[in-house]
């Protein structure tokens, strides 16, 4: 598979994923000798990531049109969890110790917000804005009505 080929499904319009996006990705994959496995994968993908989970949860195309995207990962949450865990003296604190740490963390956060609001402190830096771009190769593929470059990929049906 070409590097980043499947990533295109996260940035194209949601209504193009099944009809154009998946055939585009399949055109970038060498399925020779593994056609049955790839067909199985795409059935799974459609069943799980198109039906069970709404594509709006993992596709950023609509988000990028309405708001700036700063982080696409959970690194900030990972950092918070690490800091929280380091605040405890043991891996399994009792309820009183847990509540004391949570209470102090909450007070610290409220104080930070108030300090930022009253210009006593700068807001913490965020990641750089991310510009979501649809690859030119996908645009060319999607606009090609004849689909000559799909490697004879049959559409994958839902089970």
Structure description:
The chain has helices at residues 17-27, 35-52, 61-66, 75-86, 95-117, 136-143. With 159 residues, it is mainly α. The protein folds into two domains: 6-67 and 129-143, no CATH class; 75-117. It starts with 16 loop residues before the first helix and ends in a 16-residue tail after the last helix. The mean pLDDT is 83.
Strand content: under 5%
Number of domains as seen in the coordinates: 2
Structural class: mainly alpha
Q: How far do the termini sit from each other?
A: 25 Å
Task: Describe the largest sheet.
Answer: none
- Averaging pLDDT over every residue, what do you get? 83
Compressed to H and E, one letter per element, the order equals HHHHHH
- The helix fraction, in percent, is 40-55%
Low-confidence stretches are none
Number of strands: 0
Shape: elongated
Radius of gyration: 23 Å
List strands and helices in order, with pairings.
Layout: H1 17-27, H2 35-52, H3 61-66, H4 75-86, H5 95-117, H6 136-143
Q: What would a concise description of this structure say?
A:
The chain is mainly α and 159 residues long. The chain has 6 helices and no strands.
Question: Any key phrases for this structure?
Answer:
single chain, 159 residues, mainly alpha, 2 domains, 6 helices, 0% strand
